[in-house]
Every structure is written in C-alpha cells, then in structure tokens.
Specification:
Elements lengths: L6 E3 L2 E3 L3 E10 L4 E10 L2 E9 L7 H13 L6 E7 L4 H7 L23 H12 L6 E6 L5 E3 L2 E5 L4 H12 L5 E5 L7 H7 L4 E5 L8 H17 L14 E10 L4 E5 L6 E2 L4 E6 L6 E5 L4 E7 L3 E2 L4 E7 L7
C-alpha cells in the first residue's frame, strides 16, 4: 500500500499527511448507531493497520488505550495508515456494559464476520468487517476482563496453516510486551481475530486488565505495547518490546455453566489446575443444591467468571496448556 491516495472509510477520508476524526452511521435494521473512528494517513508508504476496542461492554482498558493512541499518533511519524476504532460496539459499551448486546442478547465476538441481512449485532459485525477489517494489512483487537471477569493479561492468535501468515501474526503478538501468548490450533469460530485470519489478515487479540478496571497506568502500558507492534510492522520508527520473554500456550478447554444459581469459584486468574480439580460450585439459592464444577483439562486459568449470579451457558473459566509443539 502507498500513501499517495486518501485513506477512505465510508464518508470519512484523510489525505496523505493528515488525520481525521469523526463518526460513521451504521444501519442495524432496528436502529442506527454511530461508530467513532480516527484515520491517520502517513506521509510515507507502509501498511494499513486497524486497531479496535469496545467490542464488548465493561472492558475499559482497551477503550482507554485506543483513545489515547488515536490522540497521540501524528501523520508525520506514520509509514502507511492507521485506523483506530475505540468503540466498535456502542450498544454493548454504552447501554449494556456486558459481553452481549442489549439489542438482541448476542455476543458480537461469536458471530464475525457477520451477516448484513441478519439481526442487529450480525449487521454490525458485517459492517465492521466490510469497512475496516477487509481493508487492513494487520489487525489488533483490544479486550479486557469485563466487570464480572478475572483475567491474566495475554495475547492470543490463531494458527491458519499458512506459514507466512502465522509467522507474521506470531511476530505481532510477541512485539506487544506481554509475556503470555496463547494460540488456537485453527481459525474456526466467530471471534474477530479468527475471522480476520481466515481472510488472510494477520490478527491478534489483546487482553489486559480485569473486573472492569479503569486504571490509567494499565492503559498507558498498553499504549506502549501498541507502539511496539506498530514499530514491528514498520508503521512507526519505534522499537518493539523485545525485552519481555514470551511464554507460549495453547487453548486447552473452556468451562461452561450448566445450572442457574450462585457461583462460588475456588480459583483466580493465573492459577494452575489439574484435570478433575474442583474449580468451584454453583449453588441453587432455592434449595441449596450444590453443583460441583471440575476442570476438564490440566493447565493455567487465564480468565474466569467472578460474578455471583450465573445461568446455563455462562463461561466460568478458560484454560490454556503449555504446547508440545508451538506450531511454528
């Protein structure tokens, strides 16, 4: 990609050497939402990098960091183009503050790349892919532990079987300065980074902060990490966070709630567990009946449910294990 052309997203544009901030309306069928964007079009050739946050509500660190980065980036220092979307899912961010949208109860990060003829959340996912992801040469999606979620910071990506794509994605993940990097063995599913990988776009998931924390220091550290990624991609003349020793993990198992009740976990994020170990109990408040929740695999818990009330289908924990073969 060259920077001799304007950077165009919908009706927003940034000429070479300029920066544009604004919003674009997205028709979700039942209503229209405004998506905030910052377009930074550099003065020199380079790739186009997309950074999103606010895919889920209640995840504040990524939104904070994306907003800070959008304010800091200047066209004169950029090789290529950077598109920053700090609030990708306004209904969930401003109304729901949870992982699912209040419009239809759908988790957008399970339905990418979306459906332009589907429900509101599927339409939003389709718009984000058509207007942002599909034009990108690299993609970073910022998440955090939500208001009911404990989390140990990590970077995630998916293996695709394409050696060049997988190597570039792994390089992005390692440049962030976060020591734990977790990969999935395939690019299946409706997560943003998985769907992007299936389109041939190197994409990483970044998870920082927990319990809906609003912490300026954490956000600033994430901005530093993003500068490292942009440096690794050649967009900025900055050095990646090379002094962090990366530990590789592979996703091993997720733990899903099977009963409605009150959740009493017996772990926190970062704990090592063995298969069959009790992770917690779900108590029925009506009759006191106890449902034990056991670890389905041996590994380390990277995030888990902290909220008291749970229902069937709620994600109680996610476990990753040290890989025998990192796939690279």
């Amino acid at each position: 990609m060259t920077t001799t052309d304007p950077l165009l997203v919908g009706t927003l544009s940034a000429e070479p050497g300029s920066k544009t901030r604004g919003t674009l309306p997205v028709d979700l069928g039942t209503l229209t939402v405004d998506i905030p964007l910052t377009l930074v079009n550099g003065t020199r050739p380079g790739p186009r990098v997309l950074i999103t946050a606010g895919v889920h509500g209640g995840e504040f660190t990524g939104i904070d960091a994306a907003t800070r980065l959008a304010a800091l980036l200047e066209p004169g220092e950029v090789h290529g183009q950077v598109v920053v979307c700090p609030v990708a899912n306004p209904p969930a961010v401003y109304q729901g503050r949870l992982g699912v949208s209040p419009l239809d109860g759908v988790n957008i990060n399970r339905v990418f790349p979306g459906d332009p003829e589907g429900g509101p959340t599927e339409r939003l996912a389709a718009w984000l892919f058509a207007h942002l992801v599909d034009g990108a040469d690299a993609y970073v999606d910022l998440h955090s532990g939500g208001i009911d979620e404990v989390l140990k910071d990590f970077v995630g990506y998916r293996l695709t079987g394409d050696p060049e794509l997988d190597a570039k994605t792994a390089d992005m993940a390692e440049a962030l300065g976060i020591e734990d990097v977790i990969f999935g063995m395939n690019a299946d599913g409706g997560n943003s980074h998985a769907a992007a990988a299936r389109r041939g776009v190197p994409a990483i998931l970044v998870e920082t902060g927990q319990l809906g924390e609003r912490d300026a220091g954490t956000a600033r550290r994430l901005v530093d990490g993003l500068y490292g990624v942009l440096g690794r991609l050649g967009v900025l003349d900055t050095k990646p966070q090379d002094d962090t020793a990366v530990r590789a993990w592979v996703w091993a198992a997720g733990v899903t709630c099977e009963a409605t009740g009150l959740w009493f976990p017996e772990f926190t994020a970062g704990d090592d567990v063995t298969e069959g170990q009790i992770l917690g109990r779900v108590i029925d408040p009506a009759d006191g009946q106890e449902h034990k929740v056991l670890a389905p695999a041996t590994g380390r818990i990277f995030y888990g449910m902290h909220g008291l009330t749970v229902a069937p289908g709620a994600e109680l924990a996610a476990i990753a294990a040290a890989p025998r073969d990192p796939g690279r």
